[in-house]
Every structure is written in structure tokens, then in C-alpha cells.
Amino acid sequence: xxxxxxxxxxxxxxxxxxxxxxxxxxxxxxxxxxxxxxxxxxxxxxxxxxxxxxxxxxxxxxxxxxxxxxxxxxxxxxxxxxxxxxxxxxxxxxxxxxxxxxxxxxxxxxxxxxxxxxxxxxxxxxxxxxxxxxxxxxxxxxxxxxxxxxxxxxxxxxxxxxxxxxxxxxxxxxxxxxxxxxxxxxxxxxxxxxxxxxxxxxxxxxxxxxxxxxxxxxxxxxx
Length: 223
Fold this sequence. Notes:
With 223 residues, the chain is mostly helical. It has one domain (2-216). The chain has 8 helices and no strands. The longest helix has 33 residues, at 188-220. Involved in the degradation of specific anti-sigma factors.
């Protein structure tokens, strides 16, 4: 069991550490990041309950409905809710890149517990595959979510703020749905690698752009 726990936790901690350490200007309090991570862990349970209700009581059947509505939309919506109400409005959210840190923390909290359940059922032989695909994809969905939350938080115009906040919720849903739909195709090995490369490439680009935005804001602060 110790091996399973370690294999389940390690990818999430490694990825969270990577994105946290990229926050070089004004790093977030470690306690706040850990708290956000555990909120992501806790949100797994209401998501599981709702997904069970949707599948059994609402009779949601079919691969597309399962992939898009029951998985991608539900999971990303709950993660967004957690980030918005626990971090977005918090005083420590004082730079655009902070959105990435907190959204990645929530996403990896969710992914870590999900990964643990999956490894308990399927064993350690899928641990590497889980780390490179499901866990890292959740982190990258969080990057996109946090990037647009950061833009929204620091936009001077109200209509831009509302638009960015809406995009921060809808875009991760779309990316997650595409990820799930790739696996519903029998030729998924041909598509998942370029999709993940594109996701990482654009995700790291969002990290760089958020840092540039941080620097611009830092110059406007009084010394």
C-alpha cells in the first residue's frame, strides 16, 4: 500500500512544485498552496456523487455524453468553483501568475486522489502511464484555467474581466473533453501524443505570458 500511495502522490507533488517554483517574483504562501491542493482533494467526493447520479438516475449513456458532460464539464466546473471562491477573491492572489499556481494546485489535488483510487484498482503497472497522461493533463487544464483567471483578475475593464473569467471555466472544459474523446477512438495512440505536446507547448507559453504580465504589474507598484 505504501508503494501505491507514493506512486499516486509523487506525480502531483512534482508537477505542483515545478509550477510553484516558477513563481519567482512574489511566491505564494506555501500554506495557501497546500490548502488549495487539499480543497482539490476534497472536491473529488461531490464530483463522484454527482457523476454517479448523472449516470444512474439521469440515465446518461453513450461515450460522448460520458466523456464531455459527465467527466469533462463536471470535473472542470467543480475545480473552477473551488479556485474562484477560495483563491481568486483572496488577498494573496496579487499577480496574474498566481491564478496558475492555485488552479494547478486544485487540479493536482483532484488528480492525485483520482490517481490513488485508480492505482488501488488497477495496480502499479499503470502508474507511469497515469503520471504522464491523466495527472499531467489535469495540471495543464489548470494552467489554462489559472492563466485566464489571472487576466480577469487584473483587467481594468469590467467586460474584459467577465469575458476572461468565463473563458477560464469553458476552455478547460473544452480541452478536457477533447482529451477524453481522443481516448474514445480506437486510434487514440496516434492522437494523444501530439495533443499532449501541443498542450504542454501552449501551457508553458501561458506560463511565460503570465510572468510577463506579472513584471508589468510589478513596475506599477510603489517602491
